[in-house]
Design a protein that fits this description.
Elements (H helix, E strand, L loop, with lengths): L1 E4 L2 E7 L3 E8 L2 E5 L6 H11 L7 E5 L5 H4 L2 H8 L3 E5 L3 H6 L10 H6 L14 E3 L4 E2 L2 E5 L8 E5 L4 E3 L5 E2 L3 E2 L12 H5 L8 E3 L6 E2 L4 H17 L1
Parallel strand pairs: 4-5, 5-6, 6-7, 11-14
Antiparallel strand pairs: 1-2, 2-3, 3-4, 8-9, 9-10, 10-11, 12-13, 14-15
Bound molecules: zinc ion (2 copies).
């Protein structure tokens, strides 16, 4: 558990690169994404280190229904004692089906791996659906389709912290990630340009966060995307 911004901690659930985020709200905790099957145990330890329990989690917001974000979700919902689950309306069925559908990946490699039982999850029924502009706790939803059709990015307005899910990967530098694993790779640049630029901190589902002076790497990346889009226009 590592502080990201006032009221927000990053919880690495696998190594130090794959993250979920926990947000302190007036009425409890909001969790953004879960992780693989082991994640509930890691999240429980982090929450207890902060002097809270899993039942303090009122809301779980899922940036998109990919296995590395939701495989531990059903167990966490059970352990949290009925937290509300939020997901974009375009992926409600994915969550309830327990796997990424064929149209969820643009490339043969992506479709092939989705046959693996390791990438299926225990279905989660009756999530609460969100669309662009919705508020969930202190977070504002920004719809960023491309990596998946219902991918959302979340802006924590009090601290101007942007949690970008898989819209941007940060393995060594900000990047779009593998096209074959995305639903509509060509839609990604325009989606990224929907994200607010005036942010102080960026949390990635995959990779180290950026803040302070280092956030210029994120801004430079968005600028390069914008230049590329302008060229294609
Ligand atoms: Zn993903
Ligand atoms: Zn991911």
């Amino acid at each position: 558990m590592i502080g990201l911004a006032p009221g927000i901690v990053r919880i690495p659930t696998r190594g130090d690169g794959d993250n979920c985020f926990l947000i302190e709200e007036d009425d409890g905790l909001t969790l953004v994404d879960v992780g693989w099957k082991n994640a509930p145990t890691v999240i429980r330890q982090a929450v207890e280190t902060a002097g809270r329990t899993l039942t303090d989690i009122n809301r779980i917001v899922i940036t998109h229904a990919h296995p590395d974000h939701v495989r531990g979700l059903a167990e966490l919902v059970a352990r949290a004692g009925g937290a509300d689950v939020f997901i974009h309306e375009l992926e409600e069925r994915w969550l309830a089906t327990g796997r990424v559908p064929r149209h969820g990946r643009s490339g043969a490699l992506g479709r092939a791996i989705d046959h693996l039982p390791l990438l299926h999850w225990q279905p989660v029924a009756a999530p609460r659906t969100v669309t662009d502009g919705a508020s969930v706790g202190s977070l504002r939803v920004i719809h960023t389709p491309g990596h998946s059709p219902g991918h959302i990015v979340l802006l924590h307005e009090p601290t101007r912290t942007l949690l970008v899910g898989d819209a941007v990967f940060h393995r060594s530098k900000p990047a779009l990630g593998p096209a074959a694993l995305a639903a509509d790779p060509a839609a990604r640049p325009a989606s990224l340009l929907r994200m607010p630029r005036d942010v102080h901190t960026v949390g990635f589902a995959h990779g180290q966060p950026l803040s302070g002076e280092r956030i210029s790497a994120f801004h430079d990346f968005l600028q390069a995307i914008a230049a590329g889009e302008a060229r294609h226009a």
